[in-house]
Amino acid sequence: MSDDDILKRYRQGTDPLPATHKVWPLYGAGFENLGREGQPIEVPLPSYGPDEILVRHDAVGLCFSDLKVIKAGQSHPRIIDDMRTKPVVLGHEIALTVVGVGENRRNAFHVGDRFVVQADVIYKGRGLAVGYALPGGLQQYNVMGKEILDGDEGCYLLPLQPQQGYAEAALAEPWACVEASYAIEYRRAPKAGGALWIVGAPSASRYFLDEGFNAQSHPRVVVLTQAPADIAASLRSRAAQLGVTLVETGDLAPEAYAQAAAAAGVSAFDDVILVGPHRPASVSAAMALVAASGAFIIASAEPLPEPAPVDVGRLHYDRILLGGTSGPDLAAGYRAFERELKPGSVLWAIGGAGPMGHMHIQRALQMGPRGPRRVVVSDLLADRLAVVERKFGPLARRNNVDLVCLAEPAFTPEAFQAKMAELTDGRGPDYIVVLAPVPAVVARAYTFLAPGGVLNVFAGLNRGTLVTLDINAVRDERQLRIIGSSGSMIADLRRVLSKSLDGSLSPEQTLAAVTGLEGARQGLEGMAAQRFPGKVVVYPQAVNLPLTTLDEMRDRMPRVAAKLGEGPVWTNEAEEELLREYLPRGADPCQGH
Fold first, then answer.
1. What does pTM read for this prediction?
2. Is 534 strand, coil or helix?
3. Please, which residues bridge with residue 41 across strands?
């Protein structure tokens, strides 16, 4: 059989199924618990029922989130079963092909259908992420059932077009996380039907709340703690008219703030509004009572007396709005702000030389005139920045964007600040994305923002990570915003796939190395050692494919290297050549055919 025939049959998904396949199980914390004796295990091919499908994994992107599971083991918050008896199969960035369909699924699925997985699965209100609670991609085959096919958002498999490559599709999932961070939707007023808590300060007065507290939209319950007399009187009257439960607690010390939640019969509030100049202890204690996807509003005509601790981990994982206003209208603290990169702006990617940084950089550069005029990338390692310049310099020049790479150890703090002032015309960056999970980096970045600027805490700092900030900049004329996001929704992944199809985004260009399934552990270890300036993609069906970086391909795989783009960057043509070389050729079922 010719190379092209092998590739054609592979794409159709019609090859005979093997009796066994290979899997990388994780039995606990540490690389020593990944697989058996450093190798994947071989197990019988799983059977599938009438409401299930059998899928073949074609490409799997390795992620730093996988390393977090390896490090944490059973203590990882997304692991729900005992790993010793039900090991985790990592890998949530998956492109797959359907190779078997249960009888009750034959109207919706067919052998040869190709999909990408939206990993953040929610089934009957329960988070069951792929690669954590559900088996992931570091195996050759898998069975998928109702959790993924009939999830709360519908089917968590998104169809692919024939022209979309396997790596291109697998890398759409991490790209969706990047895309999601520029499209976070925040409320413009207190949550309808939610729980609202307003906490006053002794000098607060002359405030009102109309939007979000009227006949069209209003909370279910309101708690007032030392609320200013004018707003308390207004809300009492309207609460009575609208049937809103209103509770007044009197004064509470910060250590007793939980009593306010108890009075409302909730564990956390959808909206917390601090009115007047509160002290740091009040700010920290109040933010701890904001629910996920909630809003934390600082409303004060007077400056807060000192910087306050902000839980940046919750901004990241729980998507809390931190807003503010210095005027009397409390709803003004929810005002809209520009989450997307603006034309003519300056983006600064801190720690941007790693895989996810590459995605933010590439996204900004591919926006062309719709995006920033300058992209500044800083990192601690000059050699990693050299890769950024080599890889993305041609794209920046084609789109007339100024790409500037700064190795921070080469500057004194004063010299770096002067350089950033020079690059931003003295204003500071309009948008800063933090890709280093270091609290001090977040605190420093915040001081650089231009008025109206946005700080995207993209790196995953744990909940409870407090960073002391001057949050007057959130409520006064500077109107700074700190945002964060984790994961993505189906809509985000659809948007990336659409951009990939129309050519406005090339997910595969962030790829730095490839390997077969046997090399997945080596790839993860290399990621932990920061060896790769981009993503590593596993091709589970590519037998005997060694871990190979794009820079090594010229010597190891000259025919594949000849199909790479300038940079070098991965292409779908290079992928085709790689599969021609490494897909199994025999009919031995133990080899995947």
1. 0.87
2. coil
3. 23
